[in-house]
Amino acid sequence: MKLVITGALGHIGSSLIRNLGGMAWDEVLLIDNLATQRYCSLFGLPEDVPFRFVEADVLSDRMEPLLGGAGVVIHLAAITNAAGSFDREKEVEEVNYRGTERVARICARQHAKLINLSTTSVYGSQEEVVDETCDQLNPQSPYADSKLRAERLLTELGRDEGLRFVTLRFGTIFGTSIGMRFHTAINKFVWQACLNLPLTVWRTALHQRRPYLDLADGVRALRFVMETDRFDNEIYNVVTLNATVAEVIEVIGRALKREIAIELVDARIMNQLSYNVLAKKFEALGFEVRGDLAAAVRDTVALLRAVSTRST
């Protein structure tokens, strides 16, 4: 069977493609437009997986033949910087919504199963505890809005065109990979702390509780869907833990063994409420989260030791 992964060289994809061993694929086609130039994600890939890489954009006409013969498509391609999406609304709409639409319609026509990656950011400003039954969704960025609209489109395609899919709402990713970037909260904080810079925290966010996902848990969740054939046209939260920014900063301080400075800043995304995202629906299928925030932070700090040991 053929597996296709879009956005294969990014933070999540670059870890996933190193953890596909033991799965019987005839071909694993990696698609990425190299917009972020993460060529290093292709370095040293496992030799026991039949990889093929193609530089292509999900919005291009090449997608139809590239997805030909696919049994499963994992759609990771997206613009993921929520805070930065306000200045790129048109591009976010094209890539995150139109790109998903193109991939999903091809999957429907070719009877390929689709794993669609969404985000817990679709919940927006909520009260206390939410899960997949929440119907009052309040996305507060173009990024989150595009992901929610894509979710709804897939539901329609499943109903009207027979698309088999699953949507995974990932918490904000933390943890290391060869293709990682540092624009998401925890990784950004670790980077700033290692540079001895004050952590830039949204003014309203210090004591707000938000959902986070260890990258290793995220990769295992993607494998879990394929291994259990969980293409039931449902939406699942995938979350390792819910934590406040203050708690995250405390963990970073312990890893670096010093007090961490904070700078409160204003931003266009400043949710006013704290909430927990439950992932019991996915865990009820037999999936077990194993991620450890403190261990992931220590691993990131260790990789940045040349930065974190600089004199100031």
Low-confidence stretches: none
- Say what the CATH topology of the largest domain is: Rossmann fold
How is the largest sheet built, in terms of strand order?
Answer: 3-2-1-4-5-7-11
Helix content: 25-40%
The largest sheet, given as strand count, sense and whether it forms a barrel, is: 7 strands, parallel
Q: How many separate helices?
A: 10
* Beta-strand segment tally: 14
CATH-wise, what's the superfamily of the largest domain?
A: NAD(P)-binding Rossmann-like Domain
Strand content: 15-25%
Counted up, domains total: 2
Distance between the termini: 54 Å
How do the helices and strands follow one another from N- to C-terminus?
EHEEHEHEEHEEHEEHEEHEEHHH
CATH architectural grouping of the largest domain? 3-Layer(aba) Sandwich
- What is the mean predicted local confidence, pLDDT? 92
- Strand pairing plus helix content: what structural class? alpha/beta
Global outline:
globular
Radius of gyration: 19 Å
Q: Assign the CATH class of the largest domain.
A: Alpha Beta
